[in-house]
């Protein structure tokens, strides 16, 4: 799990991400900025924990077809300026096989340092939080009457949540992994402010060829 501190003009924003190789972090494209610092091995990001590794990002590679308006192809690779030291606190996570989907009803988890309340002034969490969610049928998002879901694309996005429970990723959790089994199947992308509305995640399995080709190209 990676914590991203992003300098974007005069503002500082935060996102999540996850380590996919010793010098690459995967996150959401909308988490880009002028400068990004990655913290790995963190639990409480307000403290200088001994296990933390803080590394600058040297390259931000947004997906070439990322669309700001529709948030489609919301995926970005970050190349780190230094190689990470892998240990019991900092590990890489497995990615899915190309186009290998996740069945509706599959239980997964999402983690991050985002806000824990829907109130607009709610501050981000300082300690890492995790919540269990489940993969929903595509129609829950495709046929959702809310205007926000008109741009939902089932080939590049996943519909995730639990209509019976008002628990989900929220502001500040963007870019974090949706972990199903031991693989990062999704990336926190966007959602609705309405209670119990499904969250939308980038479908990682669609982008495996792009991820592999981009990492290979940068490591030359």
Structural account:
This protein has 2 domains: 103 residues, Beta Barrel (Thrombin, subunit H), CATH 2.40.10; 99 residues, Thrombin, subunit H (Beta Barrel), CATH 2.40.10.10. It is mainly beta and 220 residues long. The strands form 2 sheets. The chain has a 6-stranded antiparallel β-barrel with strand order 1-2-3-6-5-4. A 6-stranded antiparallel barrel has the order 7-8-9-12-11-10. 7% of the residues lie in helices and 35% in strands. This is Mast cell proteinase-1. It comes from Chelydra serpentina (Snapping turtle). Pfam families: Trypsin (PF00089). Keywords: Disulfide bond, Hydrolase, Protease, Serine protease, Signal, Zymogen.
Write the topology of this structure:
Layout: E1 2-8, E2 11-21, E3 24-27, E4 35-40, E5 53-62, E6 76-80, E7 107-112, E8 129-135, H1 138-142, E9 157-161, E10 177-180, E11 183-190, E12 199-203, H2 208-218
Antiparallel strand pairs: 1-2, 1-4, 2-3, 3-6, 4-5, 5-6, 7-8, 7-10, 8-9, 9-12, 10-11, 11-12
